[in-house]
């Protein structure tokens, strides 16, 4: 798009300069950053300088219910200073959700806009992204490996198209797809150990799932939120989330979800060195895993029982548990429905 602008014959008297802030997710003072960069631009005397600002979506954030983004707070506060210190037109490149947050959290700055130009994602791009994500047989996070940046980019691209935006009311299908994508992005970022970012997506996904009365998805998201909290070592909060998810899975009759949540509860109690409670959760998980015929889940639970016994210096019991786990994992490969240590 930028190349098209620069090559357009009607723009030959305009000097477009790109300012990319994508590597500054914690950016707060945008005007100061622009002012620092301006002296490095060699301005052409016969052209009008226009600044193209890219990469603000990380600093703006994703959660409509989240905190006041510092970059937007500052943008709104120093609005009048732009006339004096940045006397050039600025063109912001933002996804729909970031525009929504800009209008909400920086209303004074937003009131200065001279125009909003919406660009539709090509259908072929949408079809490819859906095939690789929403319609894929592979569950996000099921491999145990970090999700690729390319796959995350596809999810975010789809999310831009289905999110509510100024002047466009979401359809029921949009809300359902948006909910699924928010959940998948949370899981994807968690797989990359970006727990705080995952939590932002998951909190928004949970709110939307509850609004839509989607009980199964609500339970799944609640459990993953527990994992993000545990990853951040907020174990008491993680335990509350897991207990909430456990009650929901039991009410739904979802034994797989119940077993996974019991496994996660065992992990929390193990971290807290509450060995008796950890063993109780693992034994409950083991019973369900046996009933489901989930060998990998059974092996993972035996392994954790071995850790409990080892930490209690019950070495003979630990060896026995580890041997049971080993017998079940050779040479089988992981199942996507198994508990994750």
Helix fraction, binned, reads 55-70%
Shape-level CATH architecture of the largest domain: Alpha Horseshoe
Low-confidence stretches: none
Cα radius of gyration in angstroms: 25 Å
Q: Whole-Å distance between the termini?
A: 45 Å
Shape by Cα distribution: elongated
Total domain count: 3
- Number of beta strands: 3
What is the CATH first-level class name of the largest domain? Mainly Alpha
Strand content: under 5%
Total of DSSP H or I helical runs spanning 4+ residues: 17
CATH superfamily of the largest domain, called what? Answer: Tetratricopeptide repeat domain
Largest sheet: 3 strands, parallel
Q: Which fold does the CATH topology of the largest domain refer to?
A: Serine Threonine Protein Phosphatase 5, Tetratricopeptide repeat
Strand order across the largest sheet = 1-2-3
Mean pLDDT: 85
What oligomeric state do these chains adopt?
single chain
Helix-strand sequence: HEHEHHHEHHHHHHHHHHHH
Class by SSE composition: mainly alpha
């Amino acid at each position: 798009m930028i190349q098209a602008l620069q090559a357009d014959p009607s723009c030959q008297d305009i000097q477009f300069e790109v300012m990319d802030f994508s590597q500054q997710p914690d950016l707060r003072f945008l005007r100061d950053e622009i002012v620092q960069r301006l002296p490095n631009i060699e301005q052409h005397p016969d052209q009008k300088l226009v600044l193209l600002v890219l990469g603000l979506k990380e600093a703006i954030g994703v959660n409509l219910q989240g905190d006041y983004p510092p970059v937007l707070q500052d943008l709104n506060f120093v609005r009048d200073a732009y006339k004096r210190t940045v006397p050039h037109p600025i063109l912001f490149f933002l996804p729909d959700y970031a525009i929504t947050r800009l209008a909400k959290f920086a209303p004074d700055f937003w009131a200065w806009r001279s125009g909003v130009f919406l660009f539709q994602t090509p259908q072929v791009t949408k079809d490819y992204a859906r095939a690789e994500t929403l319609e894929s047989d592979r569950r996000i996070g099921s491999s145990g490996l970090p999700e690729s940046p390319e796959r995350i980019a596809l999810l975010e691209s789809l999310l831009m198209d289905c999110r509510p935006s100024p002047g466009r009311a979401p359809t029921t299908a949009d809300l359902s797809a948006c909910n699924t994508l928010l959940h998948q992005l949370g899981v994807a970022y968690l797989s990359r150990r970006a727990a705080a970012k995952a939590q932002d997506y998951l909190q928004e996904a949970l709110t939307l799932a509850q609004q839509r009365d989607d009980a199964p998805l609500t339970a799944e998201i609640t459990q993953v939120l527990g994992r993000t909290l545990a990853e951040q070592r907020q174990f008491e909060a993680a335990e509350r989330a897991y207990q909430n998810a456990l009650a929901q899975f039991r009410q739904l009759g979802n034994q797989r979800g119940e077993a996974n949540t019991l496994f996660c509860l065992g992990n929390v109690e193990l971290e807290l060195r509450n060995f008796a409670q950890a063993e109780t959760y693992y034994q409950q998980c083991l019973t369900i895993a046996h009933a489901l015929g989930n060998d990998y889940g059974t092996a993972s639970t035996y392994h954790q029982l071995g850790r409990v016994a080892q930490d209690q210096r019950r070495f003979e019991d630990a060896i026995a548990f580890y041997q049971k786990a080993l017998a079940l994992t050779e040479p089988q490969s992981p199942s996507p429905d198994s508990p994750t240590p």
